[in-house]
Amino acid sequence: MSKISWIEGLGFVSTGLFVLLGLLIVWLTGQSTHLSCVRLTPTTANCLLQRQFLGVIPAGQRDIANVSEVELQEDCFDGCTYWVELLAEEERVSLTRFATYSRRRAQFDQQSLAQYLVDHPVTTFQHTSPPEWIGFAAGLFLAVFGSVLLWWFSRRR
């Protein structure tokens, strides 16, 4: 059994981080969100935000009291990304755990929620946002490619 050189150790560590990054991206972008709201007053609603990984595995839920507004947020520092925030009494809650490069998708989510908040006769609201499949595929590629590299490096030893 030979001793591992520092450059090989660095390669293993960096490839391992490559795999972990891919798994993190898969986890974040593979989540769908389901929002259920019930109107309290003509201007506010109580909502339950549920997240599921690939629509099957529960990934958390959150009660949001007194939602009064919804905003489309953007960050164009290095390419534009978009996300939707629900505005409650003392907090802002992001609809998803990741930003998307699709303004159209984020705008659709924002408009659906905004319409519910101003449409007074409607007392309940259901909205589902699917996973971000392009990000999921990219993260899966990183994780699989990194795993194959780790396997190949270990077989060479």
Short description:
The protein is of the alpha+beta class. The chain is built from three helices and seven strands; from the N terminus they run αββββββαβα.
Provide structural commentary.
- The chain contains 3 helices and 7 strands; from the N terminus they run H-E-E-E-E-E-E-H-E-H.
- It is elongated, with a radius of gyration of 21 Å.
- 41% of the residues lie in helices and 35% in strands.
- With 157 residues, the chain is of the alpha+beta class.
- Helix 1 runs antiparallel to helix 3.
- The chain has a domain of 56 residues.
- The longest helix is centred in the first third of the chain and has 24 residues.
- Strands 3-2-1-7 form a 4-stranded antiparallel sheet. Strands 4-5-6 form a 3-stranded antiparallel sheet.
Strand order of the largest sheet: 3-2-1-7
The assigned structural class equals alpha+beta
SSE order, one letter for each helix or strand:
HEEEEEEHEH
Major beta sheet summary: 4 strands, antiparallel
Task: Give the CA-CA distance, first to last residue.
Answer: 8 Å
Proportion of helical residues:
40-55%
Low-confidence stretches: none
**Outline:** elongated
Please report which band the strand proportion falls in: under 5%, 5-15%, 15-25%, 25-35%, 35-45% or over 45%.
35-45%
